[in-house]
Amino acid sequence: MVYRSNTRLTTSICAPVILSLFLFATGFACSADLPTRFERSYSPHRTVHLTISNVNGKIHVFSWDKKTITVRANAASSVLIEDEVVGDDIAISTKRNLRLGRADFEVWVPPDTSVIVKNYMGDIEVRGVNGHVIVTSIDSDVRLINIKSPSVDVRVTSGDVYFEGELNEGGSCSLQTMKGDLDVTLPAAASFNLNARALSENINLGTFLSNLTGSSRGPKGVSGTYLRGGPRLSLTAYAGRIQLHKK
Fold first, then answer.
1. Residues 3, 85: one domain?
2. Do 131 and 112 meet the contact criterion of CB atoms below 8 Å apart?
3. Which partner from 32, 96, 125, 244 sits 20 to 30 angstroms from 222, CA to CA?
4. Residue partners of 156: CB distance under 8 A and separation at least 6
């Protein structure tokens, strides 16, 4: 960084000092906005519960065939990212600040990892995970792809939720958005007990509807058993549509 008389002598001394202070302040302000990179790798001995808590930015979680967990984030320099490992629990979080700086996460995990994602704003994607999945957010579009989890719980205040995966016997899948659409794709042979509510829009069950037994239909909801039943599928859209598709 660059640091910066009779009347004529006084002016010649003050001008360089003022210029130097200006350049110092400008350089500091620019450096404060430069992005920083967070990267950690973990080698757990058993199945892990991983929690990612963010304030502003996207979170993408992918499964891979390695036994390690790798977390990478590009963040504004004003964002503090901390991690904590306690037994089989790994928690990574960003700290809130007045500037609301952005942090974007990319995470790779073994398929059986249980994943908890918490976000205030920013898109969320979880792909190929077989462990428990919990997602909560204020303002996020959520995509869950190739999921084979024993339990899925998604709660979004504002945003669309897309789910494509399988339902485990004895398991549950609960998707809820206050303002947004739910779009769910399941195998044609999937069996489940359905409880769907769309308080201001419509529910489209597609060809699943023809094999829904014991069904109860109201102006705002549908419930019933598809094929032999089993896993619980709960879909709630307070201000949005619900669509169910066969894969």
1. no
2. yes
3. 125
4. 135, 136, 137, 138, 140, 142, 176, 177, 178, 180
Q: Which amino acid is at 15?
A: A
pLDDT on residue 201 = 79
Q: Give φ, ψ of 29 to 5 degrees.
A: -65, -40
Report the number of distinct structural domains present in the chain.
3
3-state SS assignment for residue 85: strand
Cα–chain-centroid distance for residue 62?
Answer: 12
> C-alpha angle 244/123/41, rounded to 5°?
115
Claim: this prediction has a pTM higher than 0.70: yes
Q: For residue 206, which phi and psi values (nearest 5 degrees)?
A: 55, -140
Distance from C-alpha of 62 to C-alpha of 128, rounded to nearest angstrom: 6
Q: What is the pLDDT of residues 146-183, one digit of tens each?
A: 999 999 999 999 999 999 999 999 999 999 999 999 99
Sheet containing strand 49-56, edge to edge, reads: 81-86, 89-94, 49-56, 114-121, 133-139, 151-158, 172-179, 232-237, 192-198, 221-226, 212-217
Q: Are 18 and 45 within one domain?
A: no
Three-state DSSP at 117 gives strand
Judgement on whether residues 7 and 20 belong to the same structural domain of the protein: yes
Same domain flag for 163 and 95:
no
